[in-house]
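User: Could you walk me through two proteins back to back? I'd like the raw sequence and the structure tokens for each, with a short line separating them so I can tell where one ends and the next begins.

Assistant: Of course. Protein one, sequence then structure:
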Amino acid sequence: MAEAERIIGTPDTPDTGRDGTEGDDARAGGAPGAGAREDGAHGAGAPVAASGTGGTAAETERPRGKRRIAVLFTVAAFAYALDLISKMIVVAELEHHEPVEIIGDWLRFEAIRNAGAAFGFGEAFTVIFTVIAAVVIVVIIRLARKLYSLPWAIALGLLLGGALGNLTDRIFRSPGVFEGAVVDFIAPKGFAVFNLADSAIVCGGILIVLLSFRGLDPDGTVHKD
């Protein structure tokens, strides 16, 4: 009982009996009466209520966090699968063939191998880009533990799926492990050739910038500068 009173505190207003004197006796340290028994009842019941409230809050927070993590990995798996399947089709049907025009000269599919970063930049730094992609993946996975924001889950899922897609090419395609050339095939007129993984990375990055401008953090809190 003493431990319960220490945790929840002693009520500021003592209980009052029929004649209004029992509260004074309890304040003066007199013999315990009905007020003492009621205090004991409250003391025994309060921790149970507090524990129940805390349990409810914890149960509310846990599914909320799990749902956001599930969204992240679902989006990542979808983006990765689309990129992987599209590259398999391109290698099988378009490589060593004439480009396929989709919208006249404005958009066509043309299979090329890119040893650089997204959109063909930095071909001399293939290994460095491979390491950067691996680091990004690790950081996103670690950040997922504190993820409570749905928009952030979608943005990070796009980044993760795109990074995994291009990293798969870096590891498994020629000329060698960590030096593989990425398969690109989307060729807009007057623009660099890219793939679906590049698109997912760019879309995820734009979404993160927008969320940052709005002050929304990955844990779901909103801050104002």
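----
Protein two, same layout:
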Amino acid sequence: MLNRSRWILLGIFYSFIFLFIASISLVLSAQQLLLQSDLNLVKRVELVYGIRAAKRVRSWRTMVMEHQDNILKETEKLKLVNSFFNRMYFIDDIKLWQRKDYWSTPTEFLGAAGGDCEDFSIAKYYTLLELGIPDEKIRLVYVKALNYNIFHMVVAYYETPSAIPVILDNLMTDIRLATARKDLVPIYSFNGSHLWLMKARAQGEMVGEATRLGLWNDVRNRITSERLAQPIIKLDD
């Protein structure tokens, strides 16, 4: 009986050692996935926003590196990205940044642990691009959210140029066809190149270049320069 108990204890001990080594291996393999530029970004985020923010950015960069290949279908990438960013807090710009309208970069959004609808949408848009989804398939769409009586931003994905898009939204966890979102009235949309005035829930009419949007130009410039703004409150506290 004593020998049997000893073997059971040894089995538990070795199982613990195996799980510990496996967890360390996973951490090391995730770190090896990251480029030096990503590791540098994680360090900068920790200095500006703290340890928890650095962990969020590391998780984001690891997710991108793991799924940049074409193994996942585009629809699976949409779900992955939508779910990842919808875990952040929703908070108005005036409370977080003390500005009436501030479009944060994906790094600032994760660093602050939250933002408003534009911040959710911009982070999703740029991450989908990094995962290999072409820019012509994605748009940032300004809508009127009827249930809340507010102007709102979502991401629309067009599988084909003539397809009815699906909507990625921080107000709703699941991704739905635009025709199923009767609560949203589209106003205009844009991507990295063009600007459209929307007609119902279809393609819309192209009216010019996306560079006409000042806030869009500003956030793209800040992404390039890697400047990081500091929020006035800490959601991690």
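Helices lie at 2-33, 36-49, 51-66, 74-85, 93-96, 106-112, 117-130, 214-225.

Let me know if you want the two compared in more detail.
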